[in-house]
Amino acid sequence: MSSEKTPETTRHIPILLEPIADFLFEGIRALPEDATPGVILDCTLGGGGHTARLLEKLALIPGAEKHLVLGVDRDPDAIGRNKIRFKNELSAGRMEIHHCAFSESMKIIGSRPIYGMLADLGVSSDQIDSETRGFSFRFNSPLDMRMNTGSGEPLSSWLSQVSESVLADVIWKYGEERFSRKIARRIIDLRSRGEMPKDTQGLADAIRSVFPPKLRHQGLHPATRTFQALRIEINEELKELETLIREGFPKTAPGGRIAILSFHSLEDRLVKEEFRNRDRYELPFKKPLQADEAEVTMNSRSRSAKLRLAIRKASEPEAPQSRS
């Protein structure tokens, strides 16, 4: 019998839960009583843990119910679970849930001010631990990897037509895998002979085969970085983040708070570069927050997480006028 969870349950443990909830909560508490009703945007609703804690804290502020939490996710399973989990908050008008990528969320928000924004850029435990989604080679799963199973191109289709050079570039750029060219050559060779792997374990074995024997069975699994790179490519994860930074961050209200939780250097670098604009953001911490030893012991997936926090400044200085 499959151990796959039912839609009502989640295995995901929210990372850096209290720092994120406290940071966003303080932003709402600092608003004047006559502030225009606005939203706190959870761009990656996932298991709903961060949103649940934030809603608990917001209930302590008289009048805060006029500022609703708007959760979006492109994973239909996550949407289904959270509509059950938050059915009371939804019916009370304290929350909205929408099935979309966070790059599309600005259309849903419209003219409502954004007083807080959270994006947890990691893959949820519900996705990694799924035996059917293809995110992990621990299971013999179809080559899918789509976060939104209702649209887009599954990994199997992408691999069936990608060129060797593009594949190698993706593995190197998004996985920083030093054997990227050998891995790409191996996969394309198998494809040309009609022996393309049909599942995640087959693909992982093909990737492992190009590694020197002494590296095949020690430390990090040889396929880990390549699987990360393929997932990022299939879901256009960096493009999503770039769109959020370009279109979402500027719509955050003056004094609005932004919390971005990233799990690899490519994402973190984009956020770090944006937050370097001191005319636009105030940073409560010079360095990103990371999980302490106790949290890492409880949840090993928190080890690589970096949380960057920023407060949107009231205004940016005007550009100097050129003299004619």
State the gist of this model:
Helices cover 39% and strands 13% of the residues. It has 324 residues and is α/β, with parallel strands linked by helices.
Provide a descriptive summary of the structure in words.
The chain is of the alpha/beta class. It folds into two domains: 17-125 and 238-312, Vaccinia Virus protein VP39 (Rossmann fold); 139-236, Putative methyltransferase TM0872, insert domain (DNA polymerase, domain 1, Orthogonal Bundle). The protein is 39% helix and 13% strand. The chain is built from 14 helices and seven strands. The chain has helices at 17-29, 49-58, 76-85, 87-91, 105-109, 125-128, 155-159, 164-175, 180-192, 200-208, 224-235, 237-248, 265-275, 293-298; strands at 39-42, 68-73, 95-99, 114-120, 252-262, 281-282, 306-312. The protein has a seven-stranded mixed beta sheet with strand order 3-2-1-4-5-7-6. Helix 2 links the parallel strand 1 (39-42) and strand 2 (68-73). Helix 8 (164-175) packs antiparallel against helix 9 (180-192) and helix 8 (164-175) crosses helix 11 (224-235). It is elongated. The relative contact order is 0.13.
Spell out the key features of this protein:
324 residues, alpha/beta, Rossmann fold, DNA polymerase, domain 1, 2 domains, disordered N terminus
Spatial arrangement of strands, main beta sheet = 3-2-1-4-5-7-6
> What class, by secondary structure content?
alpha/beta
Shape: elongated
Q: In CATH, what is the class of the largest domain?
A: Alpha Beta
Mean pLDDT: 90
Measured by DSSP, the beta-strand proportion falls in 5-15%
CATH architecture of the largest domain: 3-Layer(aba) Sandwich
- Give me the number of helical elements: 14
Instruction: Please describe the biggest sheet, giving its number of strands, its sense, and whether it closes into a barrel.
Output: 7 strands, mixed
Order of helices and strands: HEHEHHEHEHHHHHHHEHEHE
- From the N-terminal CA to the C-terminal CA, the straight-line distance is 78 Å
Q: How many distinct beta strands?
A: 7
